[in-house]
Amino acid sequence: xxxxxxxxxxxxxxxxxxxxxxxxxxxxxxxxxxxxxxxxxxxxxxxxxxxxxxxxxxxxxxxxxxxxxxxxxxxxxxxxxxxxxxxxxxxxxxxxxxxxxxxxxxxxxxxxxxxxxxxxxxxxxxxxxxxxxxxxxxxxxxxxxxxxxxxxxxxxxxxxxxxxxxxxxxxxxxxxxxxxxxxxxxxxxxxxxxxxxxxxxxxxxxx
Length: 207
Known about the structure:
By secondary structure, this protein is of the alpha/beta class. It contains six helices and nine strands. The radius of gyration is 17 Å and the shape is globular.
């Protein structure tokens, strides 16, 4: 693979005395959407944190050739700050950029509201807006649709597809829902075993 956006060689990762990941090599080209799947607790979120640079306590190398933004399972918003401030304080985005990205996620007119004035679905839209305000080369999504009802999940998947096309962003999506992986991803990587490693790496037929 020539000039991958992500080049990861993880020999080992442990939480305390518990091995979590072992011998995981992952290469990602620009434009791909990779779904990372496997049983709960297998190490999917841990792998995302390594890629994001949030966990450096591993044996191996992780080279990311570009900028990265991450959306966590929970929106992780600052409740005492406005919608606009939740974006500007972490990204440095200006007023026009904030207005544009809020429009993109369907939160236009809500810049002065606070997170507790938003529904869970709207909070997840705000978390997406904050990530896209960075204009990342790589977007990491850690189960971004969890705890939403079926209709909201459908709305959020459609929103992600629109944003992905508009921003041309490469994505790694953690999910335990097979239908989400098949709909959104051009490539599906499955973790298994203890400690976990890659047991399957399949490119989607629609890729």
